[in-house]
Write a structure and sequence with these properties.
Blueprint lengths: L1 H21 L16 E4 L1 H4 L5 H13 L2 H4 L3 E3 L27 H9 L3 E7 L15 H11 L3 E5 L13 H18 L5 E4 L18 E3 L8 H9 L13 E3 L12 H13 L4 E3 L8 H7 L2 H7 L8 E4 L4 E7 L5 E7 L5 E6 L11 E5 L5 E4 L2 E6 L4 E8 L9 E2 L1 E7 L3 E3 L3 E10 L5 E9 L5 E4 L4 E5 L4 E9 L7 E13 L5 E12 L7 E4 L6 E5 L2 E6 L18 E9 L2 E10 L8 E7 L10 E8 L4 E5 L9 E4 L9 E8 L2 E7 L7 E7 L9 E8 L7 E10 L1
Parallel strand pairs: 1-2, 1-8, 2-3, 3-4, 4-5, 5-6, 6-7, 14-17, 19-26
Antiparallel strand pairs: 9-10, 10-11, 11-16, 12-15, 13-14, 13-16, 18-20, 20-24, 21-23, 21-25, 22-24, 25-26, 27-30, 28-29, 29-40, 30-39, 31-36, 31-40, 32-33, 32-39, 33-34, 34-35, 36-37, 37-38
Helix pairs in contact: 6-7, 8-9, 9-10, 9-11
Bound molecules: alpha-D-galactopyranose.
Length: 717
């Protein structure tokens, strides 16, 4: 009893600490605007420099018609490229006459007539990021211009700032000076204008100084539409929860939902994470092209309510071990929004408790799942079985005693496999666990586990339980055997289901787990993994698959020294001085810059930094066909050529012909009927001595993210 009391005391103290930590230190911008995070649209990630009046007005109409306006999205924001390259004789900004023939004012008036607001973009430097006139030296004048046009929101960028004109000042000090000038200009303009700072470069820490002069500031670099980039921007923002609050928000950049680079569950995670962080919800996509399901993500009223909660407290991370995140956000009215986010690729159970989430001790709590609307009650556990890259999001609140029996107990069905990867024909143990987190018993529990045809699933214990008391779990093990043959590396799905009688009615829970199966790689092939995280390999005849992380063989933005981070399946010393290697790349989902999949030849595949890299021919993350090679004799690939104006669809055939230290690359997109040349390159003699290792390689393009590339019919002659 005493020890339980102690646990309780520790829990209460921890909870008080979480609350104290969440207290905001920022004094918000004095303009009284953006008391909840701004919501709206911005053109940048759908058209980049393609903005014009028609697009803006049409998008405003679409936002009214499709329910986004009603859901709370009210800013319609123009990004870079709206201006003419020159100011007028009086130094005023001039809208580009072809993009905005009537100027900005009529567009603002139209947007206002629909009950929406207009945003615009400028820059604190001499020119914008796209090279158009910046506001440097014209801050008050430009602020007055925006006000006269009826602008309601200004995004203010940080490109081309003349730091040289501020000797002795750090870049951050100069930014503070220049952003303050525009902030003052907007306040003096006489119009209510939200001020959004866009200064996301490493070394800028705007969360430390942005609140008194702006309504939001960027925390991270420009987002891309892939899970790795979204994760990086989340991780770069979530720790700054103390610095944001009403009128002053952390901005992890705009929402990508609808831009086709991620799956719907990944987009659902993005939206949930942004809402939990109280981030601005600015959709940067073609609104008219959104699918019903994507629109339903943007318009989920419960998740929007978490973002827009009037208390304005960003979610606080309470754990993140092994990439399994728990965040809790204090809501007005006393409830918490609890977000369980699985940043890994494999489904997992994520758990916390109501008190750890900051709620007072109670006999029971209500839980509402914000994506399924299911309403349940729990004795204190807050758990879910969350798919890889997915979320479960709940509002949790203490329940008055008499109300608990009206809700069904919260139950969680989870699956766990003893082996992450299973060779074809082999068996593993999968456990299926059903937990009753509620405060009353559930009855007649029946568990099942099914797999795809060809798999054998045998329970090793009873799959039925007559009564599962409150707070208890039941686990049954299964022997699961993969089929004897199949593709080199694939994810098969195991589906678990539980049927049970809650106190009222019949309940059902389901869970799915991806089980990776591989055909082991054997002679004549070998494997090489020079990434920082174990890669997965599979081979079936001459069809190969590689699941790996890694920055790749050539990393243009950062230079060659960052490279040599890939996984390969290869044949040792198979490439003679006159030889040809060929393969069909059937899938290459690489995401980060410099990721890709294709052919590689070098003296020793497993010896990065000792054996100089020779030459690679591959399809990169932009679906370009690329050759990269070592021309200097240094230890890295240092030269690079991408076929101009070409993006390919899979399958793509690649052919690499070696004649001594000269290599010619070819590709074909019609199954080898027509071969087009890529380039003929000469590799430094030291990088290409005698016989070479030759094989296929893959790198996801990011150190934190694994993707799987597949290859057909690799051969060397
Ligand atoms: C920078 C910003 C982007 C966008 C572009 C426009 O990259 O971070 O959000 O505004 O400039 O050129």
């Amino acid at each position: 009893m005493l020890s339980r009391l102690r646990v309780l005391l520790v829990a209460v103290t921890l909870c008080a600490a979480v609350l104290a930590a969440a207290a905001q230190r920022a004094a918000a911008e004095g303009n009284g605007l953006a008391l909840t995070p701004p919501m709206g649209w911005n053109d940048w990630y759908s058209v980049y420099c393609g903005v014009n009046a028609q697009l803006v007005e049409q998008t405003a109409q679409e936002m009214v018609a499709d329910g986004m306006k009603a859901a709370g999205y009210d800013y319609v924001n123009i990004d870079d490229c709206w201006m003419d390259p020159s100011r007028d004789a009086s130094g005023n900004l001039v809208p580009d006459p072809t993009r905005f023939p009537g100027g900005i004012a009529p567009v603002a008036a139209y947007v206002h007539s629909l009950g929406l607001k207009l945003g615009i973009y400028e820059d604190a430097g001499t020119t914008t990021c796209a090279g158009l006139p910046g506001s440097f030296g014209h801050e008050a004048q430009d602020a007055a211009t925006f006000a006269s046009w009826g602008v309601d929101y200004v995004k203010y960028d940080r490109c081309n700032i003349p730091y040289g004109e501020f000797p002795g000042e750090s870049e951050e000090q100069v930014q503070q000076t220049l952003y303050t000038r525009m902030s003052d200009g907007l306040k003096a303009s006489g119009r209510e204008i939200v001020f959004s700072m866009c200064n996301p470069d490493p070394g800028d820490d705007p969360w430390d100084w942005g609140a008194p002069i702006s309504n939001l500031w960027r925390t991270t670099t420009d987002i891309q539409d892939n899970f790795g980039s979204m994760l990086a921007n989340f991780e770069g923002t979530v720790g700054h929860y103390r610095d944001a609050g009403p009128g002053a928000w952390n901005d992890p950049d705009m929402l990508q939902i609808g831009n086709d680079g991620s799956s719907l569950p990944e987009y659902t995670s993005e939206f949930s994470l942004w809402a939990e962080m109280a981030a601005p919800l600015i959709a940067s996509t073609d609104i008219g092209a959104l699918s019903k399901a994507e629109l339903a993500v943007y318009e989920n009223p419960s998740v929007i309510a978490v973002d827009q909660d009037p208390l304005g407290r960003p979610g606080v991370p309470i754990s993140s071990a092994n990439g399994l995140w728990v965040l809790t956000k204090q809501l007005a009215g006393g409830a918490r929004a609890v977000l369980l986010f699985n940043s890994t690729n494999t489904a997992a159970t994520i758990s916390t408790t109501a008190t750890a989430a900051g709620l007072p001790r109670a006999r029971a709590y209500s839980m509402r799942n914000l994506w399924t609307n299911a309403a349940t009650e729990t004795g204190g556990q807050v758990s879910a079985f969350v798919p890889g890259r997915g979320v479960a999001m709940f509002t949790v609140g203490a329940l008055p005693k008499r109300r608990a029996p009206k809700l069904v107990p919260h139950t969680v069905l989870s699956l766990d496999s003893a082996s992450a990867q299973l060779p074809l024909g082999h068996s593993t143990t999968v456990s299926e666990s059903f937990a009753n987190d509620g405060t009353s018993a559930v009855k007649r529990v029946a568990l099942t586990l099914t797999a795809r045809p060809g798999w054998v699933v045998k329970p090793v214990g009873k799959t039925r339980v007559p009564v599962l008391p409150a707070g208890k779990r039941y686990t049954v093990a299964y022997k699961v055997t993969a089929p004897p043959s199949g593709s080199p590396l694939a994810a098969s799905i195991l589906s678990g289901a539980a049927a049970y009688d809650p106190p009222a009615g019949r309940g059902r829970a389901t869970a799915t787990l991806g089980q990776l199966v591989s055909a082991p790689v054997g002679a004549p092939f070998r494997t090489a993994d020079v990434t920082t995280h174990p890669a997965l390999f599979g081979a079936s005849g001459r069809d190969l698959a590689i699941g790996s992380r890694g920055l790749g063989v050539f990393n243009p933005p950062y230079g060659a020294a960052e490279t040599d981070s890939y996984a390969a399946i290869y044949e040792h010393a198979k490439a003679r001085r006159a030889s040809t290697a060929e393969v069909t790349v059937t899938a290459d989902p690489a995401g980060g810059t410099s990721g890709g999949a294709g052919l590689i030849e070098r003296d020793a595949m497993t010896a990065p930094k000792r054996s100089p890299a020779a030459v690679t021919l591959y399809v990169n993350n932009f679906a370009q066909v690329v050759m990269a090679w070592n021309a200097s004799g240094g230890e890295d690939v240092d030269s690079h050529y991408a076929v101009p104006s070409l993006t390919v669809r899979f399958p793509v055939e690649l052919r690499l012909v070696r004649r001594g230290s000269t290599y010619t690359g070819y590709y074909s997109t019609d199954r080898g009927k027509v071969w087009a040349p890529v380039d003929a390159v000469s590799v430094a003699a030291v990088a290409s001595s005698g016989k070479q290792d030759v094989g296929v390689f893959h790198a996801s393009g990011l150190m934190t993210w694994m993707t799987t590339a597949t290859f057909r019919d690799f051969r060397v002659r």
